[in-house]
Amino acid sequence: MRDKTVGLDIGTSSIKVSEVSSDGGRLLLTNFGLRDIPQASRPEELAGHIRSLFDDRGISAESVNTSLSGRSAIVRYVHFPKMTKDELGSALEFEIEKYIPFDKKDSIVDFQILDADNASNKIFVLLAAAKKEFVERRVILLKDAKLRAGMINMDPFCIINLFEFSKLEEGKGVYAIADIGFTRVHVSILKDGIPVLTREMDIKVNERAAALSEELEVTLNYFENQFGVSVSRVYVTGGGCAIDGLRASIKESAAADVIYWDPLTGVEIDEKIDKEALAGIKDRLAVSLGLCMIR
Q1: For 214-229, what is each residue's pLDDT tens digit?
Q2: Are residues 253 and 187 in the same domain?
Q3: Residue 51 — φ and ψ, nearest 5°?
Q4: In this structure, which long-range contacts are made by residues 219-227, counting pairs with CB atoms below 8 Å and at least 24 apart in sequence?
Q5: 4, 126, 240, 256: least surrounded by Cβ within 10 Å?
């Protein structure tokens, strides 16, 4: 194995890190860690928690991949008239503020053409945008923790990338992936392997499990109304997915099969790793593991 990569997921109440070696299509988890932190920690405190976690786990990497979430980082899916990638880039220079809630000059924007429909002569485009200040603060935070930012992604894409690596779907059909944290939930819906809707919800799942089921039902109904098809499967992971009765509640509200997704599916585990400790937190590692797939 070679090409060791570290993914750092900085959440609202915990920090998660995964270290992975890769060789071709194989992934080997060589280290991991989790540190619960007080919410609303000051930046200097958060940097100290990150540094302490790396030191305690013996992770010596200086460059890490990290991700963004929250109101300062958004995802949009938009149809445009059919055009090339270069033409779309030029068009977005003038039109991007129609689709994002930030001032263009204060934002970092990226896009990807997901699909093209020859019948309607349109393309389906993913837009991702983040406030520059938000990204800069993250880079400074890592520097204060004696780290440097490698690649910066967004939580939903990390989860989707890892799920695709799991090979649990063959690329056909309609399904949702829900990463259920204790205070934040990410839901993405994929149609024939292409993400078509992403939503982030701030819900304290341990206090309001019913609220999550209701919000998920609203999301799935919205998708059905927009695309004319229904979601047949909901894959769930994350620290909150083990809450008693949550999966049954989601199944009843969503009228879809609810399937537990182990983020380690397809990932090899180094023999030195404490398997018992890993089993206790693996559901919370989806984002940090997905970050290790970015190069």
Answers
A1: 899 999 999 999 999 9
A2: yes
A3: -60, -40
A4: 219/176, 219/187, 219/189, 220/176, 220/189, 220/254, 220/256, 222/197, 223/189, 223/196, 223/197, 226/197, 227/174, 227/191, 227/196
A5: 4
CATH of the domain at 256: 3.30.420.40
SS in 3 state form for 164-214?
Answer: HHHCCCCCCCEEEEEEECCCCEEEEEEECCEEEEEEEECCCCCCCHHHHHH
What angle do the packed helices 132-144 and 43-57 form, to 10 degrees? 50
> Is residue 151 within 8 Å of 295, Cβ to Cβ?
yes
Instruction: Tell me the residue type at 202.
Output: D
12 and 125 fall within a common domain: no
Four-residue CA torsion sign, 130, 8, 13, 253: positive
183 near 66, Cβ under 8 Å? no
- The two beta strands, 268-269 and 26-36, are parallel
Examine residue 162 and state whether it is found in any structural domain, yes or no.
no
CB 18, CB 285: distance < 8 Å: yes
Q: What is the pLDDT of residues 247-295, one digit of tens each?
A: 888 888 888 999 999 999 999 999 999 999 999 999 999 999 999 987 6
pTM of the complete model: 0.93
β partners of residue 191: 174, 194
Quickly count: other Cβ atoms within 10 Å of residue 44's Cβ: 10
Spatial distance between the Cα atoms of 190 and 193, rounded to a whole number of angstroms: 6
Which of 206, 213, 204 shows the shortest CA–CA distance to 249?
213
Q: 58 phi and psi, to 5 degrees?
A: 70, 30
27 and 150 co-located in one domain = yes
What are the CB-based long-range contacts (under 8 Å, 24+) for 90-93?
Answer: 92/127
